[in-house]
């Protein structure tokens, strides 16, 4: 395995600049004098475009860039900038998009310097300031260092690869263009001379069968085999998830008949849990059982304990009143976690109204339930006395089955209502990060609540999300609030290394790109797919509730460190009101529960508070499952067949309309899902092709090409999209590179 | 001639948007409700990128865009934006870069919709806000209308042209690439099939002779003929002017010997005018005679009158004291203009020290000098009494020979020093725009000094530039100051139509792109080339003088309405200190005179105040000519021969070094200007080619091509640059379109 050379300081000069003001020359970035306020480049204004172009002494792999700063914060520091690089000024790629903290510390950023695993060289680096910390101030850069590899033994092969890559891609675009336009001789000469492949041989074969031969049966066979060989898997993995909510109507205990939905009373009958918010659910993935305990029904705390079997589609009431069975008293805003391995459930914390808070009741009791033995054990009368957390609510708790540990973080500490003079307790206190060693039954305080900004400090909070990743053994914490302040930081805690890692400090305004804070978030984790799922609902804060807020569902890709939105219903409603209603989903709410079965990839949601100002005591008792769906292989195969046959039909329609009609009604109809309204509607419009003239649609730019050839080429281009990029012709088109 | 169809309102929808905030939806731009503050699109922030993409109902020629506004000014209005358009989202061209006024009036802008004279179609229009009036506010757009042509009879041919154009340019890039890489078969197949020409046949012939045949003599002949046929003229016209200052050492009156520069005394001898500032010069282009009158020598006003003959290189003193010859008394800061047709010179205005100002002396006398008769005539004792301007200084005056009119504008009105209680006169007054009808000897007041912002209002000032364009018959006025305020507006006045046109109101900060205000500007006009030339020197204001200010020279292209900088010496000094010293130029100064011979394209400069704080009375008496030079045809021909022979030498050096050396010393040496240090130095380095290996430099991306072929191709590409774009292969390269 080749030794990767060290990154060294690269030599460069300032090549071009957009402007500069006064004596703040571009060249000043070459010296690092943090105490000299004039030792910087300053643009003449902040009107775009502003930039500096640096020229490296020799081509190099540019791996990182370091920005020096002034000794104090400065309004001209770059809050947002981009860095580009390339072998020529005109042809540069974006290497970095980021921003500096407004402080006095140097900051180093990795620059993109590879395509897949291939390093590419740069001769020019362009820094483009976009935003300064002081909104109307000029942009300043104090000092720049570039690091990378200059060693010709490393760089020359990269330069060679770069030339070869560009030549290859240019020729492939030519080949694609020539073939589309049927410049056969030119195509063959070029291919023979350069020996560059336009695409995988399988696709050349597809092109031959489809476009040149019109052998549609052979096409279908080829697609069939491709799907079977898993070639469409990359395409599937790139598709967006579609959420499918399904309301669960469980069987009643009495017999196997399903309950009529109209029969469901709001009293919470024997068959299933009644309406509530602030309850807790956990799921035992091994047995597909959802456990639900406690909550608040609008009037009082609850102490009933239920189990739902997914297989049986049935709730069973384990206990009407756990207190009577040596278990916890009625409570809400507690937290539960499950040890599936040992088949035990833990519960900690609860909310107490100020009227009932007295020093006696402020004990943080801690219970464990053994599923198989059906018994409760009081692990501690007061965890605080045991070195653990005080009585808290709206905290988070996670189970680490492997090491038999429990982690709890945050929550608001409940305090006694002392006398009026006791003002010390008016400031809310938040609980830190604790670990419970199940075997030893002891607590450790891992992190106190801290508002310091040190690298290992954590700020406690309520209403946040905390998840344990069983494979990388990290806790993931994000969101929540402290009093009126909504937090949107995101950090992980390595439980074995006792180390905090900031994923996002929440200062960068990524609006629209991450789930919005301030809306109740319920999160779950899939350690196998390495994803965190977040369902955002209704804000608890009455002032923040908008009439038409709807749920939004986000997925955080842990490996790629990026959020994507599965759906964001406020926009869907605005775009297409009917679309939102087509698919049922639970109404937005807070104080509900969401659990995830990572084995079967299903979420379950129960109850909560719908926040109806006219009915403040109303709680929900609905029960839903959520599946995130992508197109299946079978669906794609059917879809491709449909496309091929639809085109075949359209070709037939030109020359033999009667046969075309028969073909439509038989072969083509077979590929349509007649239960799907969208597909059915499209199918019903197809016969109009029988009445169209043959030249109704010639794609722009193809007027010189035989129409059948052009249309078969279009079908080919469509089918090709399902194949992995490594197999297909380039996606771009030669003519699209021509700008006016 | 085809009738150009009317521009109509185009139908479009909002297709995509970067973001929006609250209820300020993108669709709101479709309705015009200026009194509804919520009827607008507002971005979610002003972080780039922000945009709206509009999709037209059908492809159209988009000729203009109209922005509606709110009924009041608004911080979210767009101070700066760009508009792009194209047939697809990915492939758009910039159509407009501008900004809105922050008011409540609709504004309409023409959009680029033609390439040369060919209209091109758009389907998508993208609006990109760059800057709002309130620096940290979101961007808002209230209402958008697009106007253009939708009629398919007009649009379809444009679409066809567009497809064809893109296809053609794409194929030309392929042909260029294939030829460079010697993919001969592919090149020929493609050319035969598409019948698209890579270049003008002359250049194909040049390529054949040079690259394929290595027939360098034939190349030189071809270039020779091309230059002779004027084919390099377009290239020449695109070159920047290089300024060539030359100090004029006139002959003395006594005999034909040139004066030794060291002999020149500072007393102002009989031979030439003495040192002065605030004098006046005019030039009689017909006879190439420069006339100089009056000024201030540091101690007193002057009344001597001189004529310089360019042909004779000699000054003649017409009069030692014009007052003695019925002409004007000694004066400075007067203004003169010449009627070359009638051979008469006029002078108006002067500066009077406050100590000598009394009501008697505040008469504005007006004199005319007849060149052939050598006589002065007092036209008026006091122009103010005749309905003309009061006594002014630092005004401007222009001659309109054709209509026999004189125009004078601005200047500060000299007032009596009244008693201390007379505070009315403390506010400086500036003189308006007057016309003098020479035949009738009457004055008209065209525009009073006005600080209103109406379309026909003009603000008077001092130290400004005013020029008369004899062909379009407009006065051009710019710059100047009122008290402490420097003005940088620029307007024209149509003398026949009595109409003011604002060219630039000076509010847009085009820093660096126009001559800076506050520095003494001397301007001249070339009606044939349609250019205004501005020489900026030293500021009169001591506080503004920088140690190392140097002259800068700008050209304003009247037709294209744009300024270009010929040189800006502060930057040249910073970049290359030795460069500035290589070429002599007059030291920066103020109160000097600059005149222009538009027939021979020469400027003349005399004297002025160098602003030496240690010698405040020092004035200059140096005399310079300035020519703005572009490469000549002869120079380019020699240069091309040099390039061809240099390459030929390098080719020979590989195989027959002795012959190569002989060739260098003879044929190649012939093409070098051995008096030019730069050319000589390069020539002296050439022999090193005799010692280089053959593969010392292979251009990136051409490692697969025979080296001789590649290097001859490079020479071909270099020579091709001198030909007009309409004849050459495309400038771009296929591989440069590939981005990583």
General description of the model:
2 copies of one chain form a homodimer. Chain A is an alpha+beta fold. In chain A, helix 1 packs antiparallel against helix 2 (184-194), helix 4 packs antiparallel against helix 8 and helix 8 runs antiparallel to helix 11 (707-720). Chains A and B meet through helix 1 and helix 2 of A and strand 5, helix 1 and helix 2 of B.
Quick description:
The structure is a homodimer of 740-residue chains. The first copy, chain A, has 740 residues and is an alpha+beta fold.
What's the helix and strand layout?
2 copies of one chain form a homodimer.
Chain A: E1 8-9, E2 12-17, E3 41-42, E4 52-68, E5 78-86, E6 93-98, E7 107-110, E8 114-115, E9 118-119, E10 122-132, E11 140-141, E12 143-149, H1 152-180, H2 184-194, H3 201-213, H4 216-228, H5 233-238, E13 242-247, E14 280-284, E15 289-296, E16 301-309, E17 314-319, E18 335-339, E19 344-348, E20 366-370, E21 375-380, E22 392-393, E23 396-400, E24 405-409, E25 412-413, E26 433-437, E27 442-447, E28 465-469, E29 474-478, E30 481-482, E31 485-486, E32 490-494, E33 499-504, E34 521-526, E35 531-536, E36 552-557, E37 562-568, H6 569-575, H7 577-582, E38 593-597, E39 602-608, E40 620-629, H8 633-655, H9 657-670, H10 677-685, H11 707-720
Antiparallel strand pairs in A: 1-12, 2-4, 3-11, 4-7, 4-10, 4-12, 5-6, 5-10, 8-9, 13-40, 14-15, 15-16, 16-17, 18-19, 19-20, 20-21, 22-25, 23-24, 24-26, 26-27, 28-29, 29-32, 30-31, 32-33, 34-35, 35-36, 36-37, 38-39, 39-40
Helix pairs in contact in A: 1-2, 3-4, 3-11, 4-8, 8-9, 8-11
């Amino acid at each position: 395995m080749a030794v990767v050379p060290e990154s060294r300081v690269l030599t460069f000069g300032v090549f071009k600049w957009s402007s500069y003001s006064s004596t703040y020359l571009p060249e000043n970035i070459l010296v690092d004098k943090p105490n000299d306020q004039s030792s910087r480049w300053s643009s003449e204004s902040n009107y775009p475009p502003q930039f500096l172009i640096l020229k490296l002494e020799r081509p190099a792999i540019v791996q990182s860039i370091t920005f020096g700063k002034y000794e104090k914060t400065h309004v001209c520091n770059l809050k947002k900038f981009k860095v580009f690089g390339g072998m020529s000024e005109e042809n540069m790629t974006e290497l970095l998009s980021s921003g500096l903290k407004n402080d006095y510390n140097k900051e180093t950023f990795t620059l993109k310097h590879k395509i897949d695993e291939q390093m590419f060289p740069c001769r020019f680096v362009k820094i483009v300031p976009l935003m300064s910390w002081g909104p109307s101030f000029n942009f300043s850069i104090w000092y720049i260092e570039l690091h990378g590899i200059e060693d010709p033994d490393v760089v020359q092969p990269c330069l060679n690869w770069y030339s070869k890559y560009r030549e290859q891609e240019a020729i492939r675009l030519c080949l694609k263009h020539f073939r589309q336009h049927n410049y056969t001789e030119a195509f063959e000469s070029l291919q023979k001379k350069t020996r560059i492949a336009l695409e995988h041989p399988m696709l050349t074969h597809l092109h031959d069968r489809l476009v040149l031969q019109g052998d549609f049966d052979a096409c279908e066979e080829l697609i069939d085999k491709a799907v079977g060989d898993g070639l469409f898997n990359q395409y599937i993995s790139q598709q967006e998830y579609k959420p499918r909510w399904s309301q669960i109507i469980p069987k009643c205990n009495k017999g196997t008949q399903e309950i009529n939905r109209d029969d469901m009373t709001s009293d919470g009958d024997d068959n299933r849990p009644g309406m509530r918010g602030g309850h807790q659910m956990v799921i035992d993935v091994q047995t597909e059982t959802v456990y639900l305990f406690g909550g608040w029904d609008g009037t009082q705390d609850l102490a009933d304990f239920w189990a739902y079997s997914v297989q049986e589609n049935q709730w069973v009431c384990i206990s009407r009143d756990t207190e009577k069975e040596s278990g916890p008293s009625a409570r809400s805003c507690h937290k539960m976690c499950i040890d599936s391995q040992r088949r035990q459930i833990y519960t900690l914390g609860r909310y107490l109204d100020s009227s009932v808070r007295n020093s006696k009741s402020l004990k943080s009791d801690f219970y464990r339930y053994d599923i198989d033995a059906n018994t409760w054990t009081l692990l501690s009368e007061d965890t605080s006395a045991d070195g653990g957390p005080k009585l808290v609510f709206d905290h988070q708790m996670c189970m680490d089955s492997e090491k038999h540990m429990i982690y709890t973080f945050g929550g608001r500490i409940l305090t006694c209502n002392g006398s009026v003079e006791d003002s010390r307790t008016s400031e809310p206190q938040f609980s830190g990060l604790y670990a419970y060693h199940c075997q030893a039954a002891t607590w450790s305080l891992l992190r106190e609540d801290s508002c310091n900004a040190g690298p290992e400090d954590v700020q406690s909070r309520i209403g946040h999300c905390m998840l344990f990743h069983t494979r990388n053994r990290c806790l993931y914490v994000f969101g929540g609030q402290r009093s009126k302040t909504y937090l949107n930081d995101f950090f992980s805690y390595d439980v074995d290394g006792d180390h905090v890692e900031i994923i996002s400090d929440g200062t960068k305004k990524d609006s629209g790109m991450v789930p919005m804070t301030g809306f109740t978030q319920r999160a779950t984790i899939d350690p196998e797919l390495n994803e965190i799922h977040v369902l955002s609902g209704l804000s608890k804060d009455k002032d923040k509730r908008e009439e038409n807020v709807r749920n939004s569902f986000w997925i955080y890709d842990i490996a790629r460190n990026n959020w994507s939105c599965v759906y964001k219903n406020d926009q869907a409603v605005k775009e297409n009101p009917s679309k939102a209603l087509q698919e049922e989903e639970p109404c937005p709410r807070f104080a509900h529960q969401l659990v995830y079965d990572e084995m079967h990839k299903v979420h379950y949601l129960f109850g909560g508070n719908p926040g109806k100002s006219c009915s403040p005591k109303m709680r929900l008792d609905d029960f839903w499952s959520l599946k995130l769906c992508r197109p299946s292989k079978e669906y794609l195969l059917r879809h491709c067949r449909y496309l091929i046959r639809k085109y075949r039909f359209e070709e037939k329609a030109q020359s033999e309309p009667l046969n075309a009609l028969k073909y439509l009604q038989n072969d083509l109809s077979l590929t349509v899902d007649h239960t799907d309204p969208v597909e059915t509607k499209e199918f019903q419009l197809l016969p109009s092709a029988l009445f169209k003239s043959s030249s109704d649609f010639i794609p722009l730019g193809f007027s010189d090409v035989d129409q059948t050839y052009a249309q078969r080429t279009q079908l080919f281009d469509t089918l090709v999209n399902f194949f992995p990029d490594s197999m297909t012709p380039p996606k771009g088109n030669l003519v699209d590179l021509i700008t006016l």
